[in-house]
Structures
1.
Amino acid sequence: MAHHLSHNWTLRAPVWVTEGFTEWYQLKACQATQIFTEQEAHAILAERLNDYIDILGTEYDYSLEEAAELLVTASGVSLDPYLFIVYKKGSLVAFTLDQTIRRLTDDGKSLDDVMHYLFTTADAGMKYRLDTRLVLSAVNSATGYDFTLFFDDYVLGVERLPLRVNDRGLVEVDFNALPPIGSLDVDDDGLIFSRELELGTDPDDPDSDNDGLSDGVEVLVVPVDGKLDEIWQSARLFVDPRGDTQYDIAGTDISSLQLLYDGMNLYFKLATFDTPTPSRY
């Protein structure tokens, strides 16, 4: 019954969410209502973990995304391997995600906040089905952290889940074995944490090479349109329309001029102004 009741809180999402998350919430609900003790709930988790470890590196070691797709589309074959991945491995991923969110936020947030975010922002009328990309976006938005590499490893990939059973018989997350998880865009340059790691830019510095262009502009704008010189000249003309270095905007320091990009529009940013000024590009 707990499983079916939990389905009321999983939206129209990928099947690894609707079933895997539900399996985890089933255990949480049974423990919260004292149907299971903590030890009994973790004994079930530990059994799933052992079964999961047994299939690592075998032909049945599917990613959650792949197993979910095969479960929906496969015909004429046994669905058991896909069912195990979607339901049981899915519950282990949900547990790992829940514990990781709690750890990062000092128990200020949990997987519950992700589900609440989905219900309040992803259309309570359920007019469309969420995909894995939107679930990741919800996790990031609800927590303020970038879980891209987490999803790459444990949802889209088949990296071993960082789980173990401790001396008390409780399943726990080895947080040291997790992929890097950082604040979404702490330096506000338009690049999220995982993208900065991929590029080798500094997640804490909006202008890693100190050239006056934010990292986001260099990555997202310059390679696309090839108009760097034109854009920069346009920005300079904004504060010096006559080109005589006598800036028409009082107090302007041209060395404070930066170009910023929000994913759609290019902006000039001057120390003189609190609000960026849209470019014509």
2.
Amino acid sequence: MSTYQSVIYALLHGFCEILPVGGTMVRSFVSQVFDWPEPQGALLGVLYLATALACFGHFRDDWASMTSSLIRVVLYRRRPMTVDERMPFIVTLATLPGLVAFQYLQIPVQAAFAAFSPLLLWGIYVGLSFPLLLVEYMGRKSKRSVDWNILDSVMVGISYLLWFVPGSGRTETILLGSLFRNYNREAALKFGFYCAFPVLLTVSFPLLGTLDFSNRAQAQEGVSWMSLAVAFFASFFSAWLAVGGLVKRARKAGFGIYWITRILFGIGAAGFLWFRANR
């Protein structure tokens, strides 16, 4: 894979992993259109790592406060009371089902969906957009960040399992569960980024383990160390911009534009692939 291809994938990954548009399907579409190899192994791990660090960096003050609060709870053996004291436990409950499923079910689930035709996968991508559009305009959206509790985190954790389905996306599944539980958009989005950091970090570790440190020319087969470094910074930069833009969007307007974009993009991508296969 050339440095140019790595950078294009990195920029797309940073934006599409953060924005609720289904990053995996976008990468797959680019690969099919241009006949490029998809990022695999260490390169994909670097992209996930860069995105995780961008999520962490934007909310570093929140993480510092939550970490210090957790240390006080543990040292003084007291019940978590404030939102910063409860949040580490709530994030753990929400992400644990997905991380366990990732560990034990990732390979069989991927094998099952690999047998699906591209058009069917894009149909699933479009179909998943409608529940997102529905919860966007339903409910009171009256809950705030201080209202997070164990029941809500478990319910969001169950919805988070949907990110195994191609085209669902991590941001989308967190927002689906959070909005369904009537959290306002800003609270839902912040919680999504809290959960994204440990999940993306965990996903990146096995992939980074494939780095070939014995080879000074290539980090993995077909990918140079230079391409890997440039891809990391490109993915971090685009993810940083995406996080900031999405947070501002949550404060001023809803996410409806993203759900409509998903539907239109999915229909367009499916139509393009069908036309190319039958021309």
